Amino acid sequence: MFDDLSELYQQVILDHSKSPRNFHKLENANRTAQGHNPLCGDNIMLYLLMDGEIIKDISFQGSGCAISKAAASILTTALKGKTKTEVKTLFDKVHDMVTTGGVDGEDLGKLAVFAGVHKFPARVKCAILPWHAAMAALEGNGQPVSTETDDV
Hints:
Largest sheet: 4 strands, mixed
Radius of gyration: 14 Å
Strand content: 15-25%
Order of helices and strands: HEEEHHHE
Oligomer: single chain
Number of helices: 4
Shape: globular
Number of strands: 4
Structural class: alpha+beta
């Protein structure tokens, strides 16, 4: 199964890049975060509607490469309905996967398509940028995140 993950631009990534899910401004969002990858030119704005600890709705807007746009699209579908704790746990798994390629039997669903990104170090930042924006939005600090800081 994971042999297919070695190709960077798979059908799922291309599909989510060309037709991103949840690609709009969420007007009633109560948390937002901006993410920027200056090396690739990726810019995203993530919108969350939190109900206590649960993400009730999530969307994004922005522009960038196929990897960042697909990552943001798949992230929004994966995080809807999750708690802050569940998102943090998932972030750790996804971060490990995109930096090492390891999925260790984890059931990551469509997120597993990004396992092959580790073979393209310059693209790791593209794949993980939306996740850092999601973490910033969950924390509610309102500070933009960039792939060129120590935090990303």
